[in-house]
Amino acid sequence: MVCTLCGRQVEQLNQPQAAQPQVVINNTNTNTNTNMNGAFMAAKPKDKWTALLLCFFLGFLGIHKFYEGKIGMGVLYIFTLGLFGIGVLIDFIVLLFKPNPYYV
Q1: Among 104, 50, 55, residue whose Cα is nearest residue 82
Q2: pLDDT digits (tens, 9 = 90+) for 10-54
Q3: Facing residues of 45 across strands?
Q4: What is the value of pTM for the model shown?
Q5: What is the crossing angle of helices 71-84 and 86-96, to 10°?
Q6: Any idea what the Cα angle at residue 101 is, between residues 96 and 102, rounded to 5°?
Q7: pLDDT tens-digit map of 63-75
Q8: Each residue of 33-63: b (16+ CB within 10 Å) or e?
């Protein structure tokens, strides 16, 4: 038989129908999650007001970065005096709008 709309063969004539094959599906999942992202560094809550005061008074030394656990940024702030004051100003504004406690 041929489809009258598209001309494609949809059924074969004069041939016996073959038996459908038996399909066995075995879907047992033995996968385990081995995601190690963040396993060694869990997010620790930090107090917004403590970080804000450290940033205001000692921001040019990067003490607020050390408080957050960002040692590399703290050292950079020491050598550049708070990224020439611009970094301290930006950090102060960002800390001002963070929730309390925030997670690093």
Answers
A1: 55
A2: 776 556 666 777 888 888 888 887 777 655 666 789 999 999 999
A3: 103
A4: 0.60
A5: 120
A6: 70
A7: 999 999 999 999 9
A8: eeeeeeeeeeeeebebeebbbbbeebbbbbb
